[in-house]
Design goal:
Blueprint: H1 2-15, H2 19-26, H3 29-33, H4 35-41, H5 57-63, E1 72-76, H6 80-86, E2 91-96, H7 99-105, E3 113-117, H8 122-125, E4 135-140, H9 145-152, E5 156-165, H10 173-181, E6 185-191, E7 200-206
Parallel strand pairs: 1-2, 1-4, 2-3, 4-5
Antiparallel strand pairs: 5-7, 6-7
């Protein structure tokens, strides 16, 4: 009897085109990733409410086991990714132009994390040079991404990698061309990301002997 009722319900849902959507919500990789929770909260979080970088899930799962506690990270743009890195690396510094957002995110950051306030323009682009050191990972996920990529690549360690998010956007092609011209190889991770329903891409640029072991 119960099975027949289920069959009727699923038959109805499939007939009106909602069967697949309901199945994804009840049990799927997206549910395991925490996508539904992130969509509802409008935050980049996992199924348990923990912060995630706003990258594709494919890249998050690729990157996570390769992160080392000795890494120094710099990030253009700040948010849950800053919190995520802060729980895993030696230090992370981010630059942000939105002072209201800095006030919101800063109290949530661990002690090894900080956000630099810089207005858009050269001081924002050049913020990666503020601490006069080089980084194992530089994340370009804020404003002026082509110019930031061009400037920041000079502040990578010899084994450092650069991450460009939303790299499927045609206006970031110059950044990809620039990195390849400098001798970097690239891996594209295309797919779903937290919060949004459309497909996006996160790209990592690397050289031989890189810190992620690619």
């Amino acid at each position: 009897m119960i099975r027949s009722i289920k069959n009727v319900v699923w038959g109805f849902l499939n007939a009106i085109g909602l069967g697949g959507s309901v199945q994804l919500y009840l049990g799927s990789a997206l549910k395991d990733y925490g996508w539904f929770r992130s969509y509802k909260a409008k935050q980049s979080i996992d199924a348990n409410g923990n912060p995630l970088p706003w990258y594709t899930y494919a890249f998050i799962y690729f990157l996570n086991p390769r992160i080392k506690s000795s890494f120094e990270v710099f990030e253009y743009g700040s948010g849950n990714s800053t919190r995520w890195y802060g729980a895993r690396v030696k230090n992370i510094t981010a630059v942000e132009h939105d002072t209201q957002w800095i006030q919101l995110i800063s109290p949530k950051l661990p002690a090894n994390s900080k956000v630099l306030a810089r207005p858009l323009g050269d001081t924002y682009i050049q913020a990666v040079s503020t601490e006069n050191k080089k980084y194992h990972i530089i994340v370009v996920d804020g404003r002026n991404r082509v110019k930031c990529t061009d400037y920041a690549v000079n502040y990578l360690t010899e084994d450092g990698v650069l991450i460009l998010d939303n790299s499927e956007r045609s206006w970031y092609q110059k950044a990809k061309d620039l990195m390849e011209a400098k001798g970097f190889k690239r891996l594209d991770f295309q797919g779903m990301a937290p919060i949004v329903g459309h497909e996006t891409c996160t790209t990592v640029f690397y050289r031989e002997g890189n810190c992620l072991g690619i």
